[in-house]
Design goal:
The protein is of the alpha+beta class. It has helices at about 1-20, 25-30, 35-45, 60-75, 105-110, 120-130, 185-190, 220-230, 230-265, 270-280, 290-295, 300-315, 315-320, 325-335, 335-345; strands at about 20-25, 80, 110-115, 135-140, 155-160, 165, 175-180, 195-205, 210-215. The strands form two sheets. The chain has a six-stranded mixed β-sheet. A three-stranded antiparallel β-sheet has the order 1-3-2. Helix 1 (about 1-20) packs across helix 4 (about 60-75). It is globular, with a radius of gyration of 23 Å.
Amino acid sequence: MSGRLDRRVTAVAEDLLKRKKVVAPLAVLSELGWLGSRSVQSWELGQEPHLDTLAAVGPERLAEAMTYLHEWAAGLGLLKSEVDYVAATRDRRALRFSRSGDAGVEQAFRTQWTDPALPPARLARVAQRQAKAPDLVVLNPDKRWHCAQCGETGDFHFVEDEKPLCLDCADMDHLVFLPAGDAALTRRARKASGLAAVVVRWSKSRKRFDRRGILVERAALDTAEEQCLADEDLRERRKARDRGRRAAQDLVFQAAFAERIRDLFPGLATDRALSIAEHAGTRSSGRVGRSAAGQALDEHAVTLAVVAAIRHEETDYDAMLMAGVPRATARERIRDDIDRVLNLWRQS
């Protein structure tokens, strides 16, 4: 079991280093599935005092993963630094990772690593991004609420000292809502606004907080709209170019994923392997192929993608769900069928 965890931690860390050029323990634990986005968000908002109590595993398992992560980083000679984590509250209070408050544990969680091969200017940008205080966050709640001060309700509320406040009581009533969707407008409005907040809402289907937009000052939004109108044609051309680049990257990744499937399951036809890879590796799908382990072509992640294909295409699983059979019961009924197909496909 320990060796398996070591490989999982390494796969996640290597993927983060490749994609973001920086590896932090919080990101690794989130990619492992041990910390949900709602839990992390509550901690960042100052609603939860300690992060380790929100994890899906106990302190011993967390410590084991942290040990593997630090050993991996040391072995590669990555640049080591520490980040001060502060809450997304107006007082910017320091965040604590552990209930024990042990100085060594806190330091281990604050440590991050960057690629020493990065140019100095890129290293400076990474450091600046990591040192930046988090945005203020306003919730677009998914359930009824009332302001802790005035008792009123509304579409948004700010959290202060673990209590919801309406925008009036939070002194944010002068801000206007800019829905998500136009990245350039959002970026420019945020930059021009002296006070701003990110608006998020919990997605039950995706099990995470989704950005719905931002709150900014009216004058900042007006300025941003004027700037965007002035260079609209140029931005459209850049978007088209970026879409083409991402499509090419997806084709390369899906081909590699299909090849990995064929390595593990030589009895599977090439076109079927590519079909599974395309489904599992669709950008922004949230499927296993887009996870850190999936993009690292981890054996477990690739196998999960193949199992999912068998479940939906080779068994009566979907029909059982439509008939009202509980998901856990349906999966148990088809377990032998899945194992049979897996064994068949593993044969060359």
